[in-house]
Amino acid sequence: MSDTVLVRFTVNGQSRQGHCEPRKLLVDFLREDLGLTGTHVGCEHGICGACTILFNGEAARSCLMFAVQADGAELGTVEGLMSDGKLHPLQEAFHEHHALQCGFCTPGMLLAALDLLRTNPDPTETEIREGLASVLCRCTGYQGIVKAVAAAAGTLRDAAETAPALLRRHPPP
Amino acid sequence: MDRGTPRALIGAPIRRVEDHRLLTGRGRYVADLVLPGMLHAAFLRSLHAHARILSVHRAAAQALAGVAAIATWDDLRDHARPIRAASRMTGYHATDFPPLAADKARYVGEAIAVVAADSRYAAEDAVDRIGVDYEPLEPVVDPRTAMDDRGPLLHEAIGTNVLLTRAFSQGDVDTAFGGPAVVVGDRFCFHRHAAVAIENRACLADYEPGSGLLTLWSSTQVPGMIREALAEILEIPAHCIRVVAPDVGGGFGMKSALYPEEVTLCALSRRLGRPVKWVGDRREDLMTSTQAWDEQIEAELAVNPDGTIRGLRAKVIADVGAYSVYPWTASIEVIQVISFLPGPYRVPHYRGEAWGVATNKAPMGPYRGVGRPVSTFVMEALLDRAARRLGMDPVAMRRANLIQPEQIPYRSPSGIVWDSANFAETLERACQVAGYETLRADQRRDPSARRLTGVGVATYVELTGVGSAIPASPGADIATGTEGATVRVDPAGTVTAAFGLACHGQGHETSLAQVVAQELGVHLADVRVIHGDTGAGPPGSGTYASRSAVIGGGAAILASRAVREKALLIAAHRLEADVRDLELAGGVASVRGAPDRSLSLREIARCAYGGVKRLPKGMEPGLESTRFYDPYVGTASSATHIALVEVDLDLCSVTVRRYVVVEDCGRLINPMIVEGQAIGGVAQGLGAALLEEIVYDGGGQLLT
Predict the structure, then answer these.
(1) Contact at CB, B24 and A136, closer than 8 angstroms
(2) Are A82 and B24 a contacting pair at CB < 8 A?
(3) Using CB atoms within 10 A of its CB, is residue B428 exposed (0-12), middle (13-18) or buried (19+)?
(4) Which residue of B has its CA nearest to A136?
(5) From CA B19, how far away is CA B16, in angstroms rounded?
(6) Contact status of A99 with chain B (Cβ, < 8 Å)
(7) pTM, full prediction
(8) What's the pLDDT tens digit per position in B465-482?
(9) How many CB atoms sit inside 10 A of residue A57's CB?
């Protein structure tokens, strides 16, 4: 079991690499080998969504993938959401609308929301609820989250003309 | 950051200071912590609900690369005692809960052995290679069968499966059920439930052989209690133990018990002289975290023809699982059911009887509300049945029975004192907000429809911020009625407020900072709240039973006022002013009407630590205070909920159309946080009512 393989990918715009066992889960590689502990593990079988990251621009469960499957991919995690020392509009909206309590689901929720808003920049409340149904929150009852995503959608649409990078594949190069 | 206007902080919906780290992936949960030389633990868990453990074969596992140690109870028994939730309560039997099963396993998932290895992967490989010879025993899964004790016993040494019997009574209940009484009754079952915090339980133990210090980081709600328990169980002086609850990903009561993994990891780290971390997976969490409810209630209500209550009697059987958990005991849920059952109503005659019965399931523990959800459901359902029988409107039925403001303080039949409340006010307001009369009219409009609507009304009262008059765990030798706060102004003029309580989503770093900043007269940004670390705060137990805002907030007020008084005395001395002419606001002490005569808190702090020459005669240097608060009786918190629910008769689907909560919270520290708690609670309650259940089969296997 100690045979390791080289894994190389881009995460939050930076090239990273490491050696790991072929069976190592991507989320464990991110957390343990790269120190990116913002991505959380809640169930390890794809139910809770706490481990959601962006994989080549799309939301994906990092607990259901091996690190080797990410070789050559472009990944985004919660640590890459801020830019120029400022919170991303989604992060700002979560703060403003009390969309988090214990914070454990929050990173996965943010990335699922980012994916949603990229594919649907002007979602209805129902579409937001459907789009985020892949991530479970036990504290908030989701109301603040739905409000926050709706508010962030507005901010991002307003900003799209001046800062189109926010809605493009994350992170900006 | 919002620096806040002094004096307006309490009651303001301040955005939370803890958000930034949690939103940017910089929170620090136990799973995120790494120490040099750290080992990773995995547990071998019982496959059987009830089985004697004949032998454990570890050679194949020990031979794997990366495995540092494998331990069973035989390896640890000289280093740790079984967990035992003692209580002076009569009719209660404590159980011995060895952190690793001693001779038999009593529920599926009970830990039998632990492996510590270089990685979690290696540890799990080793667990797979450990062989166990079991002698399966007949499992006990139905509490009614378990009660008669003719079948298998879980704890032979106790001699019965009934771990608890208790009754409350007032008046002459059986007479109240005679004469003109109209009697309604039913049998209610509450399913077995799980809290399912999104963060699984986790802990990291680090025993330093050089200093003899033990540090345990744990996803716990009760670091203070865990520290006290570990000192006894491990026979390590408590002052050599530090328990830290870092960021914790939800608790809901489930993380307020001492768990076998916490004890095992401490004992293992002590034996190995290395830090050992365990992060539970979801399966372990479902199998081994404390479960909730699982109660069968037979209850009857006797009313007069005008709807007023004559008497109430109930028998409650709780399936408490295999062990009585520390510190709450097997009584924690079921006693609170009979304690809270009369609710906010005048019940002159009452008898509530409770049994806590051991079965081969995961232990039962406190879960959000503890006793209140079950007691409220039963009482409100009885009132609805009585209203239907008498042809009364359910709201009118409640109006006729609510304790009136002039009867406050009111001593309930179980001895709880409702200190300040106006129950009718929440009921009337909720009816008004929901448009109750219109809802009822709409409901009657089309009785032939295939979609029917139901209007549910519930009014309840609960005891929160429980002080020392009524222990949160009856008879247990733990202090649950007090909390402390240390408020310190350092020489730089910034404020640290340290608490013994812990936080797992409630936003204490914000709400308690609001209290301290306002009481002290400084900007919010100048206050940092520390919690969840027995090495940093005053003695305290933790956060459970809706207590932290009341008890922690009370201690914060006392300590902040003491610091403020001293700061003003120093300022008066330096400014050569009368202290009565001084005010402290925005971090500056100034003479009223002469703002140019002022001293910043930083300057005051410099004097405070600068020594006697700069202080009033006889004043001791320093600028901090530690104060404790005991609300004694506790505070009544009451609410009315109204739900509009639609049922599709063809699909049997249930849709919640509207949900109204009117809650008497007392003074709100941060309305945004309070609202978040209420909404989150309703969502969790809807999940419990409509979607969730922990299911065991007849052999005690967990199917969920």
Answers:
(1) no
(2) yes
(3) middle
(4) B198
(5) 6
(6) no
(7) 0.96
(8) 999 988 777 788 788 999
(9) 17
